[in-house]
Amino acid sequence: MPSPAQPGDRHETDYDRRRLRQWLAGEAKADGVSRRRLLTLLAAAATATAVGSALGNPENASAAETAVGVADRTILKPLPPEWFIERGTNAETRWEALRGTGHHTPNELFFVRNHTATPVLDATDWRLRLWGSGLRGTPGEDRPVEFGYDDLRALPSVTRTAFVECAGNGRSFYTTQQGETVTGTAWTLGAIGVARWRGVRLSDVLRRAGLSYHAVDVQPRGLDAEYVSGGESLGRVRRPLPLAKALDDVLLAYEMNGERLPHDHGYPVRLVVPSWIGIASIKWVGDIEVSAQPLFSPWNTTFYRLFGPAHPEGGSAPLTRQTIKSAFELASGATFAAGRRYVLHGRSWSGAGAIARVEVSADGGAAWRPARLHDHPRADTWTRWSLDWRPDTPGATHLLARATDTAGRTQPDLAVPNTQGYLFNAVVRHPVSVV
Ligand SMILES: Nc1nc2c(c(=O)[nH]1)N[C@H]1C(S)=C(S)[C@@H](COP(=O)(O)O)O[C@H]1N2
Ligand SMILES: [Mo]
């Protein structure tokens, strides 16, 4: 039996429960989240499965929403078909296009996940506004603390390598490998990229804004259009971040791989929340609510929790860290000549730590061999690996890669399903043919 997909740390589950109780007592803010939704999360007796699948999923733009977006160009950079698979308002990176690209994903190749469309913003009139009950002197929305682009660039900068990976990366394998029905964009494994981000520490900006001892949550909000799902506007993309994470390793990034942040990736400034699911890394950030009360938005209630029979009734705690995965730098269905020598390349990564080892099977999972690791394994990023292979028998087969991280997690054969198809972590069977 695979171990259950972890819905976040134990303390995150307790924290969530405490925050929901605070909401019931009138001590939390939940703009744009229905009373019913919150009661459902609170009520242990609620039918979690029905709730999770009946509501819209932000990973899954409806056909009508997508049609408008396509006419308007939801993504600005070129999306050549040899690099990208277009999926509605989003673009998935092809793994075969990463072969030979080095540790960091070139900006041109980096996947794009847009709820609506990339806005073209101007750094000269951009402002980051911080407001809310968690700041000293209680600045309201009408009396915020503001930082301009140059103000941020004048603060001490930090540079760090981190992946941004969608919570739904690998979702399609719940269906193709496990026969499960899940909602959302049918990503294969290309909803991830690794970049060298440069920016300022969110903690520095929060402290300069006058962070109070009472602050518990911060909620960055994007300047892209309001997200409409099932005919209802859920407002601008926003998701609360517990203060502990906000003060730990979160960046307000203005550079990506040494270049100005590209429009599609959040220009002028985005959050980068290392090791967490992609939705935490809000692009085109315009304001941050700093709150002394817990905050809720559709992105930490309806979305980005695990629903379904394998999970707590009413859903899991909000998702935080990413899970563990591996991918080959190969097209699906790649062809190899029997008797020739090849070097197979791939990458593995985990939200829980560095990669400790990777094993590869070139015969559908019967025999496994250790791969050579090509990066010094580090948390928050992937480790590249390779393995020699000389196929001998013509026919169809599968290549499999299985990673173990320094936290002791190994990719299982089966991922525990959830209705919205988040956090797929099982070993992926990569089809190839030998001729
Ligand atoms: N403002 C805003 N921020 C956003 C999103 C969005 O649609 N709007 N999408 C989120 C999701 S779901 C993911 S996976 C990442 C994707 O980042 P990328 O497009 O730079 O790859 O951005 C996150 N930040
Ligand atoms: Mo995402």
From TrEMBL:
Superkingdom of source: Bacteria
GO MF annotation, one: molybdopterin cofactor binding
GO terms (BP aspect): sulfur compound metabolic process
UniProt-listed PROSITE patterns: TAT
Gene3D superfamilies: 2.60.40.650, Oxidoreductase, molybdopterin-binding domain (3.90.420.10)
InterPro entries named in the record: Ig_E-set (IPR014756), MoCF_OxRdtse_dimer (IPR005066), Mopterin_OxRdtase_euk (IPR008335), OxRdtase_Mopterin-bd_dom (IPR000572), OxRdtase_Mopterin-bd_sf (IPR036374), TAT_signal (IPR006311)
Domain named Oxidoreductase molybdopterin-binding: residues: 115-299
Keywords of the record: Metal-binding, Molybdenum, Oxidoreductase
Domain Moybdenum cofactor oxidoreductase dimerisation: 339-432
Cofactor(s) the protein needs: Mo-molybdopterin
Protein name: Sulfite oxidase
Species assigned in the record: Streptomyces longwoodensis
